[in-house]
Amino acid sequence: MPQKKIALIFLLLNSIFINFAFSQKISEVDKIVAKYPKSFDSTEKLADKIEKDFDSDYDRARAIYSWIAFNIRYDYNAYLNPPRVQGFNYSSEAEKQRKIKQLNDNLIQKAFKSKKAVCEGFTALYQHLAELVNLKCEIIRGDSKTNLRDIGRKATSSNHAWNVVLIDKKWRLVDVTWGQGYYDISKGRMVNDFNPVYFDTNPEYFFAKHYPDSGTFLGDRISKSDFLDGPLIYNKTIENDYKIKTPNLGIIEAKNGDKITVEIKNVSKSSQVFYLNRKNQPVKVLNPKEKRGSLEFQILIDKNIGDYITIFIDTESIVSFKIV
């Protein structure tokens, strides 16, 4: 099939499936919260509403996630032009803690009332609301992996924040900042796109995209090299449990004529699987084989392969590798 025709089909499929996909990811809790007012007089009144409508800790934690994701937008301008760090003087530890609390309260109220925040505001508001409904919640700071250039980075940096919330004696991972939407490079703006995959995320997927500053998570050591050198995965990978079995590294050393074997869990031959070449043209994989609940196929390394390979399943990006 000609490349132009494949590209046209790709765009048509993308527009057809977008509404269907949205309807599939809304839970009953989300449907109730979607009918809430966009504004409340106070965080306490919002918390009271959530406590009255939901009985379980899990549903209350999800309701907080949903309301914030539905109503608070990522402030990309503030991200590009961060305000100056606000310092203060203190004469005692008690005064220091009081002033820190005041700064945090100001951050929470600013996010709640302006409906805009960066990750610090999202996480502070989530923690505040969680504590108002008697949930133990903490803020974790660390690195994030979001674009192709992050594959094979040499060092981590503290550029993001997320939450952990204790539900039924188990700590759950929450990143409501990523749940509310994403930045569309082609449009040059934030896109509102509620996504629940970052509520109670499977740690295996979560830590492929997050690395805490301490390098640990609740006592479990997390490998920095696994994070830095791992492939870049996407939201649909998490949503559909598309585990990348091979290659297990994000950096692939190959020469012209080599074939890379890729194996992805929970994909069948009926799925449309392709990758993009150097010209961003879709190339359908040839002769895929079903193998132990996975799909296995090969990609030929030639002059048409660029510096990165991104694999798509049914119009959705799933995983990217860096080719060296």
From TrEMBL:
Organism, scientific name: Flavobacterium ginsengisoli
All copies of domain Transglutaminase-like, residue ranges: 111-178
SMART domains: TGc
InterPro entries assigned to the protein according to its UniProt record, in alphabetical order: CAP/Cytokinesis_protein (IPR052557), Papain-like_cys_pep_sf (IPR038765), Transglutaminase-like (IPR002931)
Domain of life: Bacteria
Name the record gives this protein: Transglutaminase-like domain-containing protein
Gene3D superfamilies reported in the protein's UniProt record: 3.10.620.30
SUPFAM superfamilies reported for this sequence: Cysteine proteinases (SSF54001)
Pfam families: Transglut_core
